[in-house]
Amino acid sequence: MGRDQSQKLARKPLLRQAYEEYIACRITQLVVFNKNLGDGKEKTVVVTWPTGFGNLPHDGGWQDQPYLTTRLLAAALRGDQQGTSRLMSKA
User: pLDDT tens digits for 47-63?
Assistant: First the structure.
């Protein structure tokens, strides 16, 4: 999730449960790239990029999941990707 959310997750059990489901369901891909630092210098950066979902919390496909679950999983994926993008740009 981009920023540290531990206090928010501790106070909101529904959000914590959704985030735990997201962590259990997501698929990640290892990305290795060279970042140009200027002056002809490069730095090799290794990042774990979240790509989607390998399994879902309930039986069936994406359409068979409860609406709230799909919204929370999709939001967590977007937040995770945005946070990873920020880390990639700072690396």
Answer: 899 999 988 888 888 88
